[in-house]
Design a protein that fits this description.
Radius of gyration: 19 Å
CATH topology: Rossmann fold
Number of domains: 1
CATH class: Alpha Beta
Shape: globular
Largest sheet: 6 strands, mixed
Length: 259
Amino acid sequence: MKDNTIVTFENVSFKYEKEWVVRNVDLTIKEGQFLGLVGPNGSGKSTLIKLMLGLVKPDHGSVYLFGKPIKQYKDWQEIGFVSQKANSFNSGFPATVMEVVKTGLVSRVGAFKFFTKKHKEKARQALKFVEMEDYAHSNIGELSGGQQQRVFIARALVSDPALLILDEPTVGVDARHVTEFYDLLARLNKEQGITLLMVTHDIGTITDHATHVVCMNKTVHFHGASEEYKEFNEEDLNKLYGHSVQQLTHNHDHEVSPK
């Protein structure tokens, strides 16, 4: 029977100098899941992603990708990553949308090789899926934050990732386009079968789209189905976050934010 585990953390801890930012984390991500990674600022969410991408090494414990110890893992094209590009991208960068998307194929094609017609078609299909095909020849810097994020997702898609990690991808995206963005992610998960892990503060929206939620505050305080997480009241959330939180309502049915 095939093991459908993509990521495994076994008792993982990590510290910057003397401060522990991740402690005793046990976490398993299964194929086909859409996970929302939530928690207060400074809770270790970004460090967890760095550990997952091999950018930092745990002080204790082990990380496995697709069943292999991370030290032995070589197939990094199986993992796509989209960061907070929309609010910091250089608007004067001289590249078209198609050129940006094709850079996602460099790991497969090679840095000094030419893109074939097949590669270009793959990039076009990726843009079509994120509904940005009509902007293929536009300058990336001329697009809105939401449009840019769609392009960066297309760039990640061309390498056919099994896992797509998104770090606060809605930062800089116009509020009225956030719902469309989440709908796109849900389509990626359901139609393309891509496993998603999204770091976000937008709890109200992520629980409406994700299949599972992981709540971090140095360690994992909750890991389960989104429907179960929705049932928590304010007192439950206070315990998970380690301090008081408040319910906010603006453009979403429910959103939780630290006080």
